Known about the structure:
By secondary structure, the chain is mainly beta. About 0% of the residues lie in helices and about 50% in strands. A hairpin with a 5-residue loop joins strand 1 and strand 2. The chain is globular and about 45 Å long.
Amino acid sequence: MTDFTTLQLPVLPTVVAPDGSQVRVLPALAGAGMAHFRLLPGQVAKAVTHRTVEEIWYIVEGSGQMWRRQGEREEIVALETGVSLTIPLGTHFQFRASANSALSAVAITMPPWPGEGEALFVEGPWHAT
């Protein structure tokens, strides 16, 4: 049996993601993990794809854009408070915060983030900062 977990959002980032975003690790269970991601105003994450993890994101603060590509399908969507989106396994993606506001999202990873080597760098539409 898994113990209950209760956690307040950490004030400081727990780690920096391979894409360069600040990460505050939140609770996890056997099938999924949760984290809070943040980019500072004008910051652009590195473009990545994942080996084994897919994600569901919910934007909790700020605005920006998300680029996603699966094979021939490619799109850029606006990110703003209240928007949710999926990043299916094998999707190439990159996100950026608008110049005037930080961007924060809560994401569920399925399965939980396995650690170093999960993210592979790919070509994206924007120059990472």
